Amino acid sequence: MFIAHTIAELRAHLAAFEHPAFVPTMGNLHEGHLALVRQAKPLGDVTVASIFVNRLQFLPHEDFDSYPRTWDSDCAQLQAAGCDVLFAPNERELYPEPQTFKVLPTPALADLLEGQFRPGFFGGVATVVLKMFGCVFSEAKGRRTAVFGQKDYQQLMVIRRMVQQFALPIDVVAGPTRRADDGLALSSRNGYLSPAERAEAVQLSKALQAMAASLRAGATDIPALEAHAMEALRTRGWAPDYLVARRRSDLLPPEAVDEPLVLLGAARLGSTRLIDNLEV
I need a surface site. Which of 1, 55, 57, 107 has the fewest CB within 10 A? Predict the structure, then answer.
């Protein structure tokens, strides 16, 4: 596996290839990330992953400084998963001067749900992803593919809209959410959970499954369904931000329960904030 720490090194190495397939990460890798790398492998002639903890998408009170950096383990896992190139710039390389030009996603998508509770988050994500695309795909001569996990459902929508509206010649491919045996969605932040919290954490996915079962059984009062799910988690000691049913097309509240829906949840368990989603 070739490791590039500078944009120049990355571009020089990728000049020999035509169809990069790219998986951006912030490191602290788990099976969900590695599944995306394996999914990307047949989609191009060179598989590229990045590791970069992006300061722009962290709020001042969030865990940028304490976010786990597990370099040796990440490299070994990427190599075992078949990654060909790892792009691992430091902040000075990717942001040599203050990033005053930024991508500001439309408020209609970026200011609800995650954007409401983490203001500015999607602007930070979109800005670094656009910059990564410029680094990885600048030498491509043909098809360009980027693979993102569906666990971050709203983020995936933001990236797809950005690619569409900027007419970027990039195929954005979704990777299905990977789960532990008990159903908990894999996440780097699961490592923050104590053993007792880890045992409890599956209740978020179970709450979404219960909402889905009610909808399939004919429930039509979606606000009541959402309120019941929130209260069920609160009684177990969680601090939920939202558990909602939204239209898959735009993440707005549905006008009818027979529309294609996605259930999305975000809740804090102890000091750890978890997210999950389920299409119905």
Answer: 107
Domain ranges of the chain: 2-175, 188-279
Mark whether 30 is an active-site residue: no
In angstroms and rounded to an integer, the radius of gyration of the C-alpha atoms of the chain is 19
Which CATH superfamily is 2-175 part of? HUPs (3.40.50.620)
pTM, two decimals, is 0.95
Q: Which tokens is 111 given?
A: 């200011």
Domain 188-279 in this protein, CATH class = alpha beta
What is the token pair recorded at 3? Answer: 């490791």
31-40 and 71-81 are packed helices; what angle lies between their axes, rounded to 10 degrees?
A: 40
| Catalytic-labelled residue, pool 30, 33, 61, 228 | 33
Q: What is the pLDDT along the chain (280 residues), one digit of tens a residue?
A: 999 999 999 999 999 999 999 999 999 999 999 999 999 999 999 999 999 999 999 989 898 998 999 999 999 999 999 999 999 999 999 999 999 999 999 999 999 999 999 999 999 999 999 999 999 999 999 999 999 999 999 999 999 999 999 999 999 999 999 999 999 999 999 999 999 999 999 999 999 999 999 999 999 999 999 999 999 999 999 999 999 999 999 999 999 888 999 999 999 999 999 999 999 9
